[in-house]
UniProtKB/TrEMBL annotation:
This is DUF4221 domain-containing protein. PROSITE patterns: PROKAR_LIPOPROTEIN (PS51257).
Amino acid sequence: MRKFFLLLRALPMRLYFYALFSCLGFAGCEQHLYRRDEGRPARVAPAGPLPGPPLAAPVPPRPALAVPGIALVINGQPHRLLVQARNDSARPLSTVAYFADDDRARQHPTLVRGFDGRFTFTLRDAAGQQVFQRQLRKADFAKVGTADIVVESAVAPPAFLGYSAALGALVFTVDFAVPDSDDGFQAVLLLNLKGQVVRLSPGRGLSGGPDCDPALAHDGRAMLTNAEIIRPGLPPLRLARPGADLAGAFFLTDTTVLAVYDPGKNRPVRLPDGLLSYERRATPQQLQAPNAFVVSVANGQVLSKFHYHGYYEGMGYSVPHHCLPATRTCYLLDEKRGLYLLPAAAPGPPAVMRFAEMPRFVAPQWAQEVRFEMQGEDAQFAFYADTLHPRRIRYQRLQD
């Protein structure tokens, strides 16, 4: 050991300190490595491949944003139609109507109050550019109904029936009804592609009137309301007939309409107890004359006519019918007699099949049969029409 220190003393001072610090550093490093190995368990090679990081849950696709409005095609191009209806409480309305407390009393003026409403129609093209925007108010529909119903009614969204390229018009129905009552009316509205009102016509009555749902012909070349047939380039064909009330009307084909009338007129009658009532009065000639007419849409010509008394009146008229494309036949129900079979392809007098001529339905239904139901005034029926033999029909009475 003495020789070792003597050797150190013989070294220059710089080399002495270098040797001393090298020894100390080596000792500290050795001590540090010893502590790490002592505190960590031995590594064991995995038996298989190392697991990867956990897979992230798949991100669900973002739902497509709902585009407001109704999609439709105009002149071969896609469009969007947005229809809005809002009450306008900032614009109060009022009018004078005449009511009676009961059927004995004279009518007296009554102030009716309500609020205005706005109907907004917006048409946009495929790029989202506005084609037109038109706003109508409740007063714009007053000529179709009565002022008191317009004032009292709450605003309801118009229903879109379709676009007629032949008429160049978007077709809507708009309902007006007095809250908590059965008083109301419907308007049929036609707007052209500039947003201008082309026609305003009466629709189906909400508490009475003919059985006539506003409808476009399948080819779009005519529009039927409960008062007229609207045609391109021609004046509307009025359905009113003298000495009768329209009971119902509907398209037989794109070019023909069946209109059924109730002969006579309602007349006021004072009952013995003083109450006022109404009764139907018709002359013998009116009762004997045909009351159902197949009319040409193009020129209004009557193509065929016949007697039909299967309609009935409750809250308005009902003409029970069903048109079956498979047999190209329209079936009219007369629950006291049977069925009227009206050919759609070649309008002519209908064939009448009495209930006594039709076998009762016994299951099963045949493969070539088509089932449809019709509601009469007192009973409901199901019919099974043979599409291979249109005059072969079975029936069953569902309920009375």
